[in-house]
Specification:
By secondary structure, the chain is of the alpha+beta class. It has four helices and ten strands; from the N terminus they run H-H-E-E-E-E-E-E-E-H-E-E-E-H. The strands form three sheets. It has a six-stranded antiparallel beta barrel. The relative contact order is 0.22.
């Protein structure tokens, strides 16, 4: 079944960061993609919402709404420890699944890398659900590059896997919502061809 999928488009969509409240990167990609590829469908991005619609002169035309979530699970910085670790709370995920993983902190000055740390259970740190090491040595050093409320996303890697039995699978983070965005984007390309 994967032979019918535009793998490049799906990968491009899945690579874009879109944590809740910070979906700009993915919205801008879809906005540009639809407007570049379509003649009869127009996308509008008003810096908040992303819409696409088919141009029509028929005042009696029916309206059909297709929608999809565009966000992905993430976490937010709620404090910084004296040692410079970011203390974070998760949004929509089981934080045990990501321990030891690489992540990206989306700051106002650009993206910075981090590692989701694993602390021994006898060393809790201010009730943080997730602790991220950004390779600094103090709170003041971390505060120069990260702010409370910054969003954290996880390593983005999408893979197309074929098993020895020739079964095909797609793996990657945030695929539930990103596949929905992919399907709607492809749908608008088909709607664009309609008479």
């Amino acid at each position: 079944m994967l032979k019918y999928i535009d793998k490049k488009l799906l990968k491009d969509i899945a690579k874009k960061r879109s944590p809740s409240g910070y979906e700009k990167e993915l919205k801008e990609f879809v906005y540009k993609y639809i407007n570049d590829k379509c003649k009869n469908v127009k996308a509008i991005y008003d810096k908040s919402e992303l819409y696409a619609y088919r141009l029509s002169t028929d005042r009696n035309a029916k309206t059909i709404l297709f929608d999809a979530h565009i966000d992905e699970v993430s976490c937010r910085v709620f404090n910084i420890s004296d040692e410079g670790f970011l203390l974070c709370k998760p949004f929509g995920m089981n934080n045990h699944d990501i321990l030891g993983s690489r992540c990206t902190i989306m700051t106002s000055n650009g993206n910075i890398p981090g590692i989701i740390s694993i602390l021994p259970p006898h060393l809790p740190l201010e009730n943080a659900d997730i602790i991220i090491d950004i390779f600094t040595n103090s709170k003041s050093e971390s505060e120069k590059i990260v702010e409370i409320g910054d969003s954290v996303v996880f390593e983005k890697k999408i893979e197309f896997i074929t098993t020895p039995e020739q079964k095909q699978f797609i793996t990657g983070p945030g695929l539930d919502n990103h596949i929905g965005v992919y399907i709607l984007t492809k749908l608008f390309l088909e709607i664009d061809k309609m008479d």
